[in-house]
Structures
1.
Amino acid sequence: MSAEHVTVYSRPGCPFCMSLRAGLQGSGLAFEEVDIWQDPEAAGVVRSIADGNETVPTVVIGDWQAVNPSTRQVLAAVAEHAPHLLPA
């Protein structure tokens, strides 16, 4: 089953989130960004992935999850799990 979208969980002022956002935008990849400080359910998702911590960025692509991945790692995961989401 392939993923329908790329979700990036972040929070304001996070330099790692800003770096990943810039890298993904530069690649042309479409993604949904969710602020864990504004969405308690999203914060819970991140805690479930990051051993109880609210470590961001956390990225989810279908069943694939990663805490603080690089742009390269996210693009590789998209190519493997949701190639239809790669930019043309």
Note: Strands lie at 6-10, 32-35, 58-61, 64-67.
2.
Amino acid sequence: MDVRIGIQNSPRELGFESAQTPEEVKSQVAAALAGDAKSLEFIDSKGTVFLVPAAALAYVEISGEEARRVGFVA
């Protein structure tokens, strides 16, 4: 699944592939925003850890897995 995160006052977004389900990411973001969490921690499919300040979070885009196509499409 692909995750893209927008950070306030930053011209670029953070994008990575995650092994988590969309529901897990959504609940993690909701819990951090509802509580007093200072940061969100995400781990991509390669094991890289991303820490994002919760106060600077602009948006989180979660997209499900798509079957990869091989060959020519009619």
Note: The two ends are 26 Å apart (CA to CA).
3.
Amino acid sequence: MIQKRLSLSSMIAAAAAVVTLGLPGMASAAYEHPANNEKGFIVHPEHFKSEKTREQVIAETKAAMQQGLLSYGESNYPIRTPDAAGPGKTREQVVNELRNESPAERDARLRLYYPG
């Protein structure tokens, strides 16, 4: 019978994996609870306790953006403005566009949404 000794590096890697995989569960444990369903948990947002208001978080984010403390991707999220999207189209306009599209446009749209 041959016994192998575990190396120090493999034990450190195993401990790091356990910590890394366990942190997300520990962070959300306050409002996610185990459940006997497909997901394995149920979310109770009313259990989440925030110590900051939305305005405080927005102010901190803007300050961090101005100071350059956010990494790439964190600071370039588009700021929502009410008039940025415009009035939009009515349902009738969208239906008319779909009825009047050319066969090439229809084929391109279907390939975009249904690859295969």
Note: The mean pLDDT is 75.
